Sequence to fold (166 residues):
Amino acid sequence: MEDVATQWLTDEQQAAWRAYLLAFQLLDGDLDRQLQRDAGLAHTHYGILVALSEAPGHRMRMSDLAQLQRFSQSRLTHAIARLEKDGYVVREQCPTDRRGQNAVLTRAGMRALEAAAPGHVAEVRAKVFDRLSEDQVAALRDACETLLEGLDRPAACSRVEPSPVR
Fold:
């Protein structure tokens, strides 16, 4: 087997990579803290409620939801159990597959999402978009969409479209 020389990152690439990782980690933490503080929701739970709000009939097969959120089945089951306890989601048998279950957004879940969304959007604006010029926003979108082309993601995420409640 031939030894192939490693192509190390340039100094600029290394700086960009580390800045991206740190920004992503800090932003995710800030958004989680804001949602916990203002709405009593974990950022991951907010994402589940958003996905269900956008699904036809506000319901989605648990396996599809797990794939969309990039959760293991057990992680999603735990999250749904918490959202059920709060009255935001119910589970129902899948009518086309007796082994499957659907997660269904309740009215209380939609109200919780609608109540949480303005504060979440304000935090996203303050932490991201208010800090960037229009050209930087366009460059960010272009860079992210380019990266997404090379990443493994579920079919439900094949298009990045704006959502009114994100």
